[in-house]
């Protein structure tokens, strides 16, 4: 194997194993920032040795053993953390004889629990939402700072600062490296699910830039969600989130045209929907419901997505059921955005004249003042009612508010179509 091929293999192995490495090391040193540095040290050692010695039979275990030795050396040298040194002394005495001969066991030891601790630490409420997202993608997704910056269209130094500050905040706040228990688990789990869904949504409907979707972000979020579902199999909302992401991800190929233009849900070629992902999503939804979580916010959204997935054609969509599910969602998580989505479903089920008052009631909502989908939905309803001039104005306003180039283009096309229809009527 050439040196460049070995380097590519090392990069691939590290991307797969880095989260386990950092999680295992954080259990020893109780500091995710230091754990990441030690994992990087192990990577550097691999880059130095593997091109000559060859890739070991179990590269993940090799990296873990090397990193653990670094962790042990670090703690031994540190005079400032004498107490940790003493605590770890027992671990060293017990673990050292087995590290070299039993690399297989080293990588598997408490991996699930360690990953779970890392998830809850990276998504700790002491951090801002942006910091949680960046740190989660870095520590659990294995993305570089450059990759995160590119995914969210923000400068690389900004992401680097967020990550550095997040690690510092966790250390200064002495956030324990543990899984919360009891009532705290529900609150902290909500934060974890929010971060994962934010990542997915940014990939599914990019808020800015030239691309309508960023599939890599969807894949990262889906992978994290599946891991979380394995680690917390009795939490219905985790399965609800996984179900939602699986079903939405199933439409990825149908959401974008040959030139990258967006294709709206009702106009998509359903033959392009990924049936495997739909089956996985429906199975996850069934698990959430079996665990008593049918009315959780993510399970409800997954149930709405399932209505679309089960319809063989757009006209077969069960809009009355979707409208009812949105009504339940409003009661569980009341928000202007959910109200707007409910109005859309209500309009599809009972006609635009019935839905327009629901949308108009949101016009004075301050949080939607710059939300482009409000004038977009209103413009669509007005067009269906034949009020083309008003519809054009709303769609042009929506185009002026979105930061996504592809979405702006399709909104302006719809506005132009309204203008043409109006001129024909005159």
From TrEMBL:
Gene3D superfamilies tied to this protein: 1.10.1740.10, Winged helix-like DNA-binding domain superfamily/Winged helix DNA-binding domain
* Biological process according to GO: DNA-templated transcription initiation
InterPro entries for the chain: DUF6596, RNA_pol_sigma-70_dom, RNA_pol_sigma70_r2, RNA_pol_sigma70_r4_t2, RNA_pol_sigma_r2, RNA_pol_sigma_r3/r4-like, WH-like_DNA-bd_sf
- Coiled coil region boundaries: none
Domain RNA polymerase sigma-70 region, residue spans: 23-80
Gene Ontology MF annotations: DNA binding; sigma factor activity
Q: Output the Pfam families linked to this UniProt entry.
A: DUF6596, Sigma70_r2, Sigma70_r4_2
Give the top-rank taxon of the lineage listed in the UniProt record for this protein.
Answer: Bacteria
RNA polymerase sigma factor 70 region 4 type domain mapped to chain residues:
120-170
Annotated ranges, domain DUF6596: 188-288
**NCBIfam families from the UniProt entry:** sigma70-ECF
Q: What is this protein called?
A: Sigma-70 family RNA polymerase sigma factor
From which source organism is this entry? Polyangium spumosum
């Amino acid at each position: 194997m050439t040196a460049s091929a070995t380097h590519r293999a090392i990069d691939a192995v590290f991307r797969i194993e880095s989260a386990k490495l950092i999680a295992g090391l954080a259990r020893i040193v109780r500091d995710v920032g230091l754990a990441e540095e030690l994992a990087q040290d192990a990577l550097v050692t691999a880059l130095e040795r593997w091109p000559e010695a060859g890739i070991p039979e179990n590269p993940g275990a090799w990296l873990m053993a090397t990193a653990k030795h670094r962790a042990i050396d670090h703690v031994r040298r540190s005079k400032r953390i004498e107490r940790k040194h003493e605590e770890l002394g027992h671990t060293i005495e017990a673990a050292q004889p087995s590290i070299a001969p039993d690399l297989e066991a080293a990588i598997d030891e408490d991996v699930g629990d360690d990953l779970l601790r890392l998830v809850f630490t990276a998504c700790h409420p002491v951090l801002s939402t942006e910091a949680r997202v960046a740190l989660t993608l870095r520590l659990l997704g294995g993305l570089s700072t450059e990759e995160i910056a590119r995914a969210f269209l923000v400068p690389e130094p900004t992401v680097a600062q967020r990550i550095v500050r997040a690690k510092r905040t966790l250390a200064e706040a002495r956030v324990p490296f543990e899984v919360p228990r009891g009532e705290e688990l529900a609150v902290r789990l909500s934060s974890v699910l929010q971060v994962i869904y934010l990542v997915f949504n940014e990939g599914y409907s990019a808020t800015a830039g030239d691309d309508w979707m960023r599939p890599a972000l969807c894949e990262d979020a889906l992978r994290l969600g599946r891991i979380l579902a394995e680690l917390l199999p009795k939490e219905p909302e985790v399965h609800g989130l996984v179900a939602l992401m699986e079903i939405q991800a199933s439409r990825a190929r149908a959401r974008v045209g040959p030139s990258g233009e967006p294709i709206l849900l009702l106009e998509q070629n359903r033959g392009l929907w990924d049936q495997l992902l739909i089956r996985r999503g429906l199975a996850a939804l069934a698990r959430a419901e079996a665990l008593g979580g049918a009315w959780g916010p993510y399970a409800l959204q997954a149930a709405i997505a399932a209505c679309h997935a089960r319809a063989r054609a757009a006209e077969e969509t069960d809009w009355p059921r979707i409208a009812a599910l949105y009504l339940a969602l409003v009661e569980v998580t009341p928000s202007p955005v959910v109200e707007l989505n409910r109005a859309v479903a209500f309009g599809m089920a009972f006609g635009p004249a019935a839905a327009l008052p629901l949308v108009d009631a949101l016009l004075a909502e301050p949080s939607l003042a710059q939300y482009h989908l409000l004038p977009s939905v209103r413009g669509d309803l007005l067009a269906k009612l034949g009020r083309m001039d008003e519809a054009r104005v709303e769609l042009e306003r929506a185009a002026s508010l979105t930061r996504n180039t592809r979405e702006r283009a399709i909104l302006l096309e719809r506005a132009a179509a309204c203008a043409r229809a109006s001129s024909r009527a005159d």
